[in-house]
Amino acid sequence: MDDVAWTRTEMLGPEAPPASAVGIVGWMRANLFSTWLNVILTVAALGAIWLLASHIVPFFAHSVWNASSYSECREIVARTWGEGASGACLAVIRERWKQFFFGFYPADYYWRPTLAFILMFVALAPVLFSSLPRKMLWFSAIFPGVAYWLLWGGSIFFPIAIYLGFVAGYVAFRVAERGPSFLPPLAAAVVTIVWWLFIAGPLANLLPDIGLPAVQSKQFGGFMLSMTIGVTGIAFSLPLGVLLALGRRSDMLFVKWISVGFIEFIRGVPLITLLLVASFLLNIFMPPGTNFDIILRVIIMVTLFAAAYMAEVIRGGLAALPRGQYEGADSLGLNYWQATRLVIMPQALKISIPGIVNTFIGLFKDTTLVAIIGLLDPVGLITSIRANSAWNGIVWELYGFVGFMFFICCFGMSRYSQYLERRLRTDRH
Amino acid sequence: MTMPVAVTAEPFRLSMLIYDTRYRSITIQIIALVATLTFFGWIVSNTLANLAALGKTFDFGFLQQRAGYDINQALIPYTNDSTHGRAALVGIVNTLLVAVLGCITATIIGVLVGVLRLSSNWLVARLATVYVETFRNVPVLLWILALMAVITDLFPAPAAFRGDNATAAMMANGTVAITNRGAYIPWPVFGTGWQAVAIVFLLSIASAWAFGRYAHARQVATGRTLPTFWIKLALIVLPALIVDWLVGAISFQVPELKRFNFEGGGFIDKSLIALWFALALYTGAFIAEIVRGGIQAIARGQSEAAAALGIRPGRIMSLVILPQALRVIIPPLISQFLNLTKNSSLAIVVGYADVRATLGGITMNQTGRELECMILMMGFYLLISLAISTVMNVYNASVAMKER
């Protein structure tokens, strides 16, 4: 054995991987050029990107901000960048952005919708992020009244009188608590409705007219209108959807039929027909002489529409819960509402989050349909601007702008739902 | 036999309607029933009072009256002398046309993009994601209007195709012209003897079906497979083509540029094109997500097990993955088809004469019969929804997992 001249006593260190398998080259080989099919796909994708970029980049690079008409825009582009060059005529956005955001709201009061919009985030924050102090929820509760008062103006005592209805209902609830268990909610509901129907209006009229100058609904427009309809619809469609879903799964045959009938009817017809009902037929269905606000009518229809879809989403969540959860809640001696509130709903809603947020996104996108019944939401504004002789023929700038704004809102909502899903996932780490 | 000890029945008291859970649900249901009936009664009495005040009656006689307006695109014979009922029928056919075209195109786009999103190619997967997110997060109304504006303002007018220095050219070997009025396409002309071609075509479809049965039976019996797809394709296409070539029954008329416009051939109005493709692209983005979710829902072990059995990749897809994925994909796909059909009611914004534009638009405005028109229109959409979901539910039940 002595003739072994030399023996390695320690292990060799690992060799560096070949240059073609690491770094950018390795990544490209694995992800872009792994097979012939992939090579072809990559080349096609690059071609598509080049085609898009070669149109979009010069379009924005040559954009014109200062012009008073579309023809002037084109003149400026042709003068600066040569004949046949394309350029974005963003002057139209510059000229009309106030209209796009506020519609025909009086310019002196732009601070009111703006403030309401900012306060909306303050009100939403404790709902969206559970790490914030719970006391902030009180502000979330009074926000609808504040927002109504800021947007429409009028006497401050009107929203206060409406809110006092809740207080009256609460008092009735406490007073009736000595009675049988069904009495408190019934008393609260009856007292609140009676208060709203017969007391709130006269009370608000009785008190001095202190508040903001009133703004008519027909002056609403642009993204402010979409936001008003969308946010109100979202806020009311969720509780209504929960009730409908519970009704559809109820043991009580008749309650079930009503829920099923309502849900299937609403889901079977397009939203636009419901909006037409709101604008043509609601006056026929109401007692003679009733005349209520077109925005309110639209909000009611959009809310009912979204609630039916919401009910189906939540029903899916309820069906996905294992039977043991219902039986466990029963065996603890919880009654129906306790079981629903404490055991069933928290889990069912968690399962349904993606569907719920999708319904919200759909509702927000559907607010554009009000353009068809003549309200001037952003889409309605585009049509009226394109009909204006100064901006006739303009396409991409307006649709791109409005589309981009909607994209930001809807994409933001879907990202939030993904965040929420991750955070509420309790079965994995 | 011993009789069981009789439980002394508690005498019924009125308060049990509230306190006893057995009776409480009946009480609640009766209250709900009475409230609902009262509500509808209230609405009906309001409606009657309002109609009386307006001097209107409730009848559908207007459907027999002369409509008096023109419709730019009608698949069934229609003139402005036709009745309102006929106009509504034209609208219904147009709604169904755009719904069918849109559903087919959306499915093709959706399946393609959904598969591309799962591609191992990074760039392609990202592009597909961008498409899906862009189209899903912008209202469909905006897409319809934008597409219409693009066709109207950016596509060439028929005059641009004229002369030696024409700025636009016809596509597909000079047979298709896409203008700012719509698309002019070749259209089949059925000459004498086209019935023979049709009969041969139907017979060849039957023979292809029979061949499929035979090939399947042969594979079950012997284990040997035939190139079924190509043979079926040849069986369906070739005989009809040969007969047509011999008889010369069916020819294509190509649109030609005349004095003011293209003439001859078929014409697809720009409103239909805008609506069709906007709906297809929008719904396609949703379908892509459904397809991706369906394929991802199949456990990885399924394809690995199939590969371990020695099945080729293409057949793994068609025999193992797809049958299982379809079960996940079909139900949400149905609701997307329904959504597309309902979204086609936005046709009015581009002036496409669907049922909402004829019956629920011009007819309603001309006759002032809002209530009757809305009832008919909603009834039509409800019927479509119920029909599609019934058909699809039957299919769904047939592919559902047979669980024991």
Automatic annotation (TrEMBL), chain A:
GO terms for cellular component: ATP-binding cassette (ABC) transporter complex. The keyword Transmembrane applies. Its main location: membrane. It is found in: Cell inner membrane; Cell membrane. It holds the Pfam family BPD_transp_1. Keywords: Cell membrane, Membrane, Transmembrane, Transmembrane helix, Transport. It comes from the Bacteria. GO terms for biological process: amino acid transport. It is a multi-pass membrane protein. The chain crosses the membrane at residues 36-61, 109-129, 136-152, 158-176, 183-203, 223-246, 258-282, 294-314, 355-376, 396-416. Residues 223-417 form the ABC transmembrane type-1 domain. CDD domains: TM_PBP2 (cd06261). GO terms for molecular function: transmembrane transporter activity. Belongs to the binding-protein-dependent transport system permease family. HisMQ subfamily. This is General L-amino acid transport system permease protein. It comes from Amaricoccus macauensis.
UniProtKB/TrEMBL annotation, chain B:
One of its GO terms (molecular function) is transmembrane transporter activity. One of its GO terms (cellular component) is ATP-binding cassette (ABC) transporter complex. Belongs to the binding-protein-dependent transport system permease family. HisMQ subfamily. One of its GO terms (biological process) is amino acid transport. Its main location: membrane. Keywords: Amino-acid transport, Cell membrane, Membrane, Transmembrane, Transmembrane helix, Transport. This is General L-amino acid transport system permease protein. Residues 92-392 form the ABC transmembrane type-1 domain. It comes from the Bacteria. The keyword Cell membrane applies.
